[in-house]
Each structure stands twice: as C-alpha cells, then as structure tokens.
Amino acid sequence: MKRQGVFISYSKKDAKWLDDLRTHLNYLEREYKFTIWEDSKIEVGADWRSEIKNAIDTTKIAILMVSANFIASEFINNEELPALLFAAKEEGAHIFPIIISHCMFSDIDAISKFQTVNPPSEPLIVMDDGQRDALFVKVTKEIKRVLSSESTISHIPPRLITVEELKISFMRVIIMNIFFMNNAVEGLSIKEIYKLSKLEKRKEVVRVIHELETLKFLDKTKVEQVNYYKLTADGYEFINKYTLNL
C-alpha cells in the first residue's frame, strides 16, 4: 500500500495545540492534495480501530505531539505508537516529535531516538505566539520537503512568490547581516536591532527575530529583564555559506 498521508498522534487534552498545527497544515492538504489524519476524521458510528489502522497503513509522516498527557495515554502507547514505530522501522515512515510540554520524552528509548522539531527543553508551552508560529511553519515546510522528495505530492505548476513573502525574505537578510556586522559580546536587544534595521514596523522585526531563534540561527539571553540575541554556530555557518554582506 502506498504511503503518502500524514498522521497526527496527540492526547485529547492537548487539542488546543492540534488546532494551531492544523491551521498551518491545512495549506498543504488543500494545495497538494494529500490526507492529514487525526481522530476528528472518524465519523459517528464508524469502527474507530479500523479507521485508525487504515490511516496508519497509509501514513508517510507521523507527527507525535508529545506531552505528559501523551505519555500517560494508554491508548496512544498501546495502540497508535507501536503501529507508527513499526511503520517507521519496517516501511520507512518518518516520525516528527513536537514537544508540547516538559515531560519524560528523553527517558523513553522508543521515541527519544527520533530528532525532535523543537528541543525537549523548549516545549511549546514556554514559547510566545510568534515562536510557535515559526515552529509550525518549520514543521509544514519539512513535511512538504519529505513528501515532495519522494514524489508523493501531486504535480502542480510553480507558484509565484508574493510581495509579502519577498518582503519577509528581504527582512531576514537585513537582520542576519546586522548580527554579522554588529554582533557584540553581550548580543543585541530587539530595540537595537530595530534601530539598525531602519525597517518601518517593529512587530515585523520581532517576528523575524523569533523565527530565526526557532531555526537555531540565534541564541537568546536575558539580562535585567532585557532579551539579547546572538548568532549561533548555525547562524554563522549560514552567513558564511550565502555571503550576506551587503
């Protein structure tokens, strides 16, 4: 059976985070014509065990929304997780764990061997809205990359980039270049970055900074209630590779 779907395993107690993730993933489901499955798809009166088994049998990517609730769920651990791990081991399915809250993820050998989307020490619950959105965008792009590379997404004509997307890309270049040219020992505050960028809207600068932090291009430290940001090793590597000096 051809594997081309996405299966989301989560605890119903974490449904809020599922809704936020689905908001981002709906774009892929609409534009690229494949199925993203979670248990709300089960119709009233349906054989739910059979429905779940069929969904897992066609899953190419499994998203695990890991929390204390997820780990405590007997149904997830006895039904969903063993089938998803088998699909990963025997049939090449991909496992993407997203850490929702502080939990014992790192102590569970069966799932901790998979690379998480966000570090276990930085769960969604400690992120602000901008950081969470950036992380969900990262998940969406990774799903698109995996499915595209394995020719499971229906071919569609290339989409022209929008003015807004071009603007955000340009802002990323400006801000990364600021860090390269002005990366002081203690780092730069958002106020300093905004001033150096000469960009019009401060909230757009904040959005890009949080996105770069989520992508591990920036590190954040707090000194006297002020957040300071510095380039990480990955950030320096990115700059050296693409030469952002303007």
Strand content: 5-15%
Rg (CA only): 20 Å
In terms of structural class, how would the helical and strand content be classed? Answer: alpha/beta
Q: What overall form do the CA principal axes indicate?
A: globular
Average of pLDDT: 83
Order of helices and strands: EHEHEHHEHHHEHHEEH
Placed side by side, the strands forming the largest sheet appear as 2-1-3-4
What low-confidence regions span 5 or more consecutive residues with pLDDT below 50?
152-156
Largest sheet: 4 strands, parallel
Beta strands, count: 7
- Percent helix, as a range, is 40-55%
Cα-to-Cα separation, first versus last residue: 51 Å
Number of helices: 10
Can you characterise this structure?
By secondary structure, this protein is an alpha/beta fold. It has helices at 15-32, 48-57, 68-72, 74-91, 109-112, 129-149, 163-182, 190-197, 202-214, 233-242, and strands at residues 5-9, 36-37, 59-66, 94-99, 188-189, 218-223, 226-231. A four-stranded parallel β-sheet has the order 2-1-3-4, sandwiched between helices. A three-stranded antiparallel β-sheet has the order 5-7-6. Strand 6 and strand 7 form a beta hairpin. The chain is globular, with a radius of gyration of 20 Å.
List the helices and strands and how they pair.
Blueprint: E1 5-9, H1 15-32, E2 36-37, H2 48-57, E3 59-66, H3 68-72, H4 74-91, E4 94-99, H5 109-112, H6 129-149, H7 163-182, E5 188-189, H8 190-197, H9 202-214, E6 218-223, E7 226-231, H10 233-242
Parallel strand pairs: 1-2, 1-3, 3-4
Antiparallel strand pairs: 5-7, 6-7
Helix pairs in contact: 1-6, 2-4, 6-9, 7-9, 8-9
